[in-house]
Amino acid sequence: MNIHPVFIQAFYYAIVMGLMTAAIGFIQKGFFWKYIRVRMSFGKLLIVKVKAINRDYFEVGRIDEGQLVYKCNTGTKKGKEEKRIDIKYKSSFYRSLGTSWIDVDEEKNCVIHPDYKKTSGFDAVKFNSLYLRALYRPQLTDQQQRLILLAVIGIGIICLAIAFLSWQNYANIGMITQYMAKGTTTPGTI
After folding, report:
1. Does residue 49 belong to any structural domain of this protein?
2. Is residue 3 part of a domain?
3. What is the pLDDT of residue 111?
4. Dist CA 29 CA 31 (whole Å)
5. Which helix (H) or strand (E) holds 73?
6. Would you tell me which of 52, 159, 166, 186 could form a disulfide with 106, CB atoms 3.0–4.6 Å apart?
7. Looking at the domain assignment, is residue 17 inside a domain?
8. 86-90 long-range contacts, CB within 8 A, separation 24+
9. Residues 114 and 189 in one domain
10. Predicted confidence (pLDDT) at residue 190 exceeds the cutoff of 70
11. CB 109 within 8 A of CB 124
């Protein structure tokens, strides 16, 4: 099998480009891939510049119902946890490198405006947990809760059965009263 030299040269250039792209991603500690992801989203995502005590790092975020949502390594065993921060002002966003950016203080979990004014902060991980718990129905995990729920459903079914039997007895008492008024002792005889 004889491969054309142009295809061999194109293959070699592709290998060199792939290695250079991997090297750029490694040197920039993940910023390059996050930037490419945000750039390819065509405005749906934005870059979150998280200002920590000793360094700045970047995360990919999105706006959901007026709140900034992004995943961040919180240092717990769970790894990356989702944070949700309320955005009060449009002036918090700025454009750089053709994408939208926003700055966030890691310690206070607050938005930093481009003029370096900070908004009030809070615990963003707990806020997101409470927000998601409010959105989704609670799961019954306790055995005692399940037993109580089954007991309530059973009592409801028993109450319906008693109501049905009482209604039938009421109808039968009405028939017996009519027969007694006519003076007959057995139903069906006139």
Report:
1. yes
2. no
3. 81
4. 6
5. strand 67-73
6. 52
7. no
8. 87/63, 87/111, 88/119, 89/113, 89/119
9. no
10. no
11. yes
CA–CA separation, 3 and 153 (whole Å) = 75
Is the Cα dihedral 47, 114, 126, 88 positive or negative? negative
For 107, the enclosing helix (H) or strand (E) is: none
pTM of the model: 0.51
What is the distance between the alpha carbons of residues 93 and 76, in angstroms, rounded to a whole number? 29
Cα separation, 106 vs 85, in Å, equals: 11
Kindly state the DSSP code that residue 118 receives in the 8-state scheme: B
Instruction: For residues 68 and 82, give the distance between their C-alpha atoms in angstroms, rounded to a whole number.
Output: 10
Let me know whether 131 and 180 are in one domain. Answer: no
Tens of pLDDT, residues 41-89: 887 888 888 887 887 788 888 888 777 888 877 655 566 777 778 777 7
* Enclosing domain of residue 93: 31-135
Q: How far is C-alpha 22 from the geometric centre of its chain's CA atoms? A: 32
Q: Which residues pair with 61 in a beta bridge?
A: 46, 70
Same domain, 46 and 111: yes
